[in-house]
Amino acid sequence: MKDLFEVLKPGGEDWALAKTLDPDRLPAHIAIIMDGNGRWAGRRNMPRAAGHRAGVEPVRIAVETCSRLGLEALTLYAFSAENWKRPRAEVDMLWRLLRLYLHRELPEIMRNDIRFTCMGRLDALPDPVRREIEIAIDATARNRGMRLNVAINYSGRAELVDAVNAIVEDARLEGRLRDLQIDEAAITSHLYTAGLPDPDLLIRTSGEMRVSNFLLWQIAYAELYVTGTLWPDFRRVDLLHAILDYQKRDRRFGGLNLETETARAEEWVEAVQTIAR
Ligand code: FPP
Asked: 35, 198, 200, 238: which one is catalytic?
C-alpha cells in the first residue's frame, strides 16, 4: 500500500482518503463493470465514441491504484458477448481503443510488474486485436505483481457452459465419463478465472443495479458497490470511496460475525435455558 503514496500529493483529497484505509482489510480482488461512456458523451452532445475515448484514462488510474495498493487482482468488464449488437463502427472503435491502450500502457504495466490476462471467447475477435492481446499476455507472463484481467467478448453464462464442457471433455479423455460427478471445486477450477480468488468487491458505475451477466459464479459473496458516477468521470477518489465503503461492510458469508457472537455467548446460554424450562 505504501507504493500508492508515492503517486499521491500530500494533503490532496485522494491522499486523505488513502490515509483512512485499513491496510489489513483491503479486498484481494476488485471487479469493475465500467458503464456510462455513452451517457457521458450524450450529456455533452458528443458522439458515443468520445465517451469510450474518455473511458481509457479511468482504466489507467484504476490499474495503477489497485496495483500500488498491492491487490492480487483487478478484473475489468470491457466488452460483453452482447456488445456485438452495437453498430459496427462503435465495436470497431472499442477494438481500436483496446489495442491502443495495450500498446501504450505495456511499458507501464511491465514497470509495475503487472500480469495481464484476458477472459472470454477470444476466438471471435479480429486478428489484430487478438495479436495485441497475445503480445501483452506473453510479455507479462512472468510478472509477479497484480493480475490485470480484462473480460472481452465475455458472458458469465457462456463461461459456465465452457467450464462444464471442459469438465466433460477432461473426463472423456481420461475415460471417467460414466462415473463423472461435478462438484463446486470442479466448476471453479474450470472457469476462466481458475487460480484467482473470487472478487471481494464488485463496483458498477452509472447507477445501474444490474450484474449484466458478469462473473455470475464468482460474485456469489462479493460486496456490491454501485455509484452514479459515469465511467469516464471515475477517478482515484471514487475508487478509494468504494474500498472504504467495502471496509465498513460486515462480511459474514452466510454465517455470523464470530467476534460479536462470542461476546453474546452468555445471552445464548440463558435463552436456551429459558426454552428448556
Ligand atoms: C459501457 O458504457 C462501456 C463499454 C461497453 C466499453 C468499456 C470500454 C472502455 C472503458 C474503453 C477501453 C477499455 C480498456 C480496457 C482499455 P456504455 O457504452 O454501455 O454506456 P451507456 O450505458 O451510457 O450507453
From this structure: 35
pLDDT digits (tens, 9 = 90+) for 11-63: 999 999 999 999 999 999 999 999 999 999 999 999 999 999 999 999 999 99
- How large is the average pLDDT for residues 71-90? 98
Nearest atom, ligand 1, residue 98 CA: 16
Which of 61, 59, 63 lies closest to 78 in space, CA to CA? 59
**pLDDT over 90 at 102, yes or no:** yes
29 has which bridge partners? 73
Residue 51 buriedness (CB in 10 A; 0-12 / 13-18 / 19+): buried
Q: What angle do CA 122, 89, 63 make, to 5 degrees?
A: 55
What was the pLDDT predicted at 194? 98
Does the C-beta of 68 come closer than 6 Å to ligand 1? no
Pocket flag, ligand 1, residue 201 (CB < 6 Å): no
- Assess whether the C-beta atom of 83 lies below 6 angstroms from ligand 1: yes
3-class state of residue 238 by DSSP: helix
Q: To the nearest whole number, what is the mean pLDDT of the chain?
A: 95
Ligand 1 pocket, 69 CB below 6 A? no
CATH class of 2-154+197-276: alpha beta
Lowest average pLDDT, out of 37-46, 66-75, 247-256, goes to 247-256
Query: 170 an active-site residue?
Result: no
Q: Is 83 a catalytic residue?
A: yes
> So where are the chain's domains?
2-154+197-276
Distance between CA atoms of 116 and 59, rounded to whole angstroms?
13
